[in-house]
């Protein structure tokens, strides 16, 4: 009798534990806060050698991993595409920022974003700020996996459009007659939307709202989302597309002239950025979820640096050659990246391990225990670096990075510490925006271990390094082979999937 009662008791206990398991697992999924700043250089933060003090960002770095070899794509849309899909923009038809009249722009609905993946894994998802991956119904954040969003479909420079009389005439005239698909955002607006519903206009985007959009809207909305889901014990992913330092870069009046160095508008905006990062970190702590929240802080692109730093007399890409337009040198592709997860991600680590914008989707899937959701029906360029993030591996697993230009063609390949440049923009760097790509007589080679500024083309000093070309050809060949099997999507195409073979 005792044995039978004991068996029944244990069976009931096991049943109750099994019923409770899914809820426990749900609560243990890490929250993810992705704080993405805009056109801010590698050397703009004091922890990366910047002159404007950034104590909250510095502390964030000291509590996690600081990457010194994190690589993005050539411009805003391209980098955000890579983050969202784990794919180079040349594959997704988002390598061009200038759509033809009547052509759709951005990611086609078929693409599987990190927001879709995490939503399928049981996360609440939100985007506040800049999207820049589609500006028509069907290609907005709430169509691409986000439960809710509030922000701009395109870019912050549009805040200045309505200052021009002829722009207003254009809106009333030519664009209205042509009925172009992006009229939803003409004149520029801030939009909002929820999953399963059309996005709608929330307010105008102009120079009145531009200086206050972060402090009065994006940060409070992010903080509210964090606290709301923490209270509901719901795992969440919030992607904050912060506005600075994209032109027109004008910081909140409360910070103008008050940066520690009094170094001008650029320094003021960096100081405000640091304060805003602190507000988000404080919200996470106040919600009691510090130990179960992954915080990522990074930039989508370099600053234009020598050209005045977003037009505000500043900006630094650190020790690297190149800038936002002076490609494909390291200063155009290396930006800051910091990852913190207390108790899980090693604190105080500074690494030269390579990481790329395309790596976030598989890596976050790995950290969230959702690797099985990473698509297998298309090329994924990203590498799952979660083992490295958790201190379980000495390497990220990434040994190379391909860098494509604004015309969708390959500019350079980086393999370990060797860099091959096929095409580049002619200097001087501050005039790079006025120049097209130049094809070198022979692909240029640089040894980044001894020449990080890319000053000495190895062909000029030795011919014994020709063997490196073989490694580059293997990387390029693997990409070419994948394109033959999975042709790249064309810009504006309503792609619906590859045919099963």
Q: What does the model show?
A:
There is one protein chain. The chain has helices at residues 2-28, 55-62, 76-85, 89-92, 114-120, 165-178, 213-231, 265-286, 330-333, 360-367, 386-389, 468-485, and strands at 31-37, 65-71, 124-130, 148-152, 189-194, 200-204, 236-241, 293-299, 334-340, 349-351, 355-356, 400-404, 410-415, 418-425, 437-447. Strands 1, 2, 3, 4, 5, 6, 7, 8, 9, 10 and 11 form an eleven-stranded mixed beta sheet that branches. The chain has 501 residues and is of the alpha/beta class. It has twelve helices and 15 strands. It has two domains: 29-398, Alkaline Phosphatase, subunit A (3-Layer(aba) Sandwich), CATH 3.40.720.10; 403-485, Arylsulfatase, C-terminal domain (2-Layer Sandwich).
List key phrases describing it.
single chain, 501 residues, alpha/beta, Alkaline Phosphatase, subunit A, Arylsulfatase, C-terminal domain, 2 domains, 11-stranded mixed β-sheet, 4-stranded antiparallel β-sheet, 12 helices
Give a quick summary of the entry:
Helix content is 29%, strand content 18%.
* CATH domain topology of the largest domain: Alkaline Phosphatase, subunit A
What structural class should be given to the helix and strand makeup? alpha/beta
- Give the helix tally: 12
How large, in whole angstroms, is the Cα Rg? 23 Å
| Ends distance | 61 Å
Beta-strand proportion:
15-25%
State the share of residues found in helices, binned by percent: 25-40%
Give the count of structural domains.
2
Unreliable stretches, pLDDT < 50, 5 or more residues? 1-26, 307-311
For the record, the CATH architecture of the largest domain stands as: 3-Layer(aba) Sandwich
Secondary-structure element order, N to C: HEHEHHHEEHEEHEHEHEEEHHEEEEH
How many strands, which pairing sense, and closed or not: the largest β-sheet?
A: 11 strands, mixed
Mean pLDDT: 90
Question: What's the CATH C level of the largest domain?
Answer: Alpha Beta
Number of strands: 15
| Shape descriptor | globular
CATH superfamily of the largest domain: Alkaline Phosphatase, subunit A
């Amino acid at each position: 009798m005792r044995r039978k009662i004991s068996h029944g008791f244990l069976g009931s206990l096991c049943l109750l534990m099994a019923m409770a398991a899914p809820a426990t697992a749900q609560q243990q999924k890490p929250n993810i806060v992705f704080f993405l700043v805009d056109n801010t250089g590698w050397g703009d933060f004091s922890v990366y050698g910047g002159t404007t003090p950034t104590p909250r960002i510095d502390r964030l770095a000291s509590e996690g991993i600081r990457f010194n070899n994190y690589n993005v794509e050539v411009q805003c849309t391209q980098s955000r595409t890579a983050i969202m899909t784990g794919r180079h923009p040349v594959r997704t038809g988002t390598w061009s920022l200038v759509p033809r009249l009547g052509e759709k722009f951005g990611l086609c609905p078929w693409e599987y974003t990190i927001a879709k993946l995490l939503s399928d894994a049981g996360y609440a998802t939100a985007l506040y700020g800049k999207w820049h991956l589609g500006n028509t119904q069907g290609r907005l954040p709430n169509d691409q996996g986000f439960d809710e969003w509030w922000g701009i479909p395109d870019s912050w420079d549009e805040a200045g459009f309505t200052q021009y009389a002829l722009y207003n005439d254009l809106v009333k005239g030519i664009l209205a007659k042509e009925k172009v698909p992006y009229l939803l955002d003409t004149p520029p607006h801030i939009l909002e939307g929820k999953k399963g519903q059309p996005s709608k206009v929330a307010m105008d985007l102009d120079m009145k709202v531009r200086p206050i959009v972060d402090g009065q809207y994006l940060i409070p909305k992010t903080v509210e989302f964090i606290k709301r889901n923490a209270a509901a014990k719901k795992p969440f992913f919030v992607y904050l597309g912060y506005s600075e330092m994209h032109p027109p870069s004008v910081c909140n009046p409360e910070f103008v002239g008050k940066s520690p160095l009094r170094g001008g508008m650029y320094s003021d905006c960096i100081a405000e950025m640091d304060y805003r990062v602190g507000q988000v970190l404080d919200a996470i702590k106040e919600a009691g979820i510090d130990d179960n929240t992954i915080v990522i802080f990074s930039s989508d692109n370099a600053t234009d640096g020598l050209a005045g730093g977003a037009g505000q007399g500043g900006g630094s890409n650190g020790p690297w050659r190149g800038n936002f337009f002076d490609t494909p040198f390291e200063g155009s592709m290396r930006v800051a990246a910091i990852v913190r997860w207390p108790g899980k991600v090693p604190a105080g680590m500074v690494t030269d391990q390579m990481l790329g914008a395309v790596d976030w989707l598989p890596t976050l899937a790995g950290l969230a225990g959702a690797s099985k959701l990473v698509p297998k029906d298309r090329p994924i360029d990203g590498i799952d670096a979660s083992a490295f993030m958790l201190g379980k591996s000495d390497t990220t697993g990434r040994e190379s990075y391909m860098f494509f230009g604004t015309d969708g063609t390959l500019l350079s390949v980086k393999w370990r510490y060797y860099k091959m440049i096929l095409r580049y923009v002619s200097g001087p760097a501050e005039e790079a925006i006025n120049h097209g790509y130049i094809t070198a007589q022979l692909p240029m080679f640089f040894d980044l271990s001894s020449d990080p500024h890319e000053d000495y083309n190895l062909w000029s000093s030795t011919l014994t390094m020709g063997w490196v070309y073989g490694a580059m050809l293997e990387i390029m060949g693997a990409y070419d082979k994948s394109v033959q099997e999975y042709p790249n999507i064309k810009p504006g195409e309503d792609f619906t999937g590859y045919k099963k073979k």
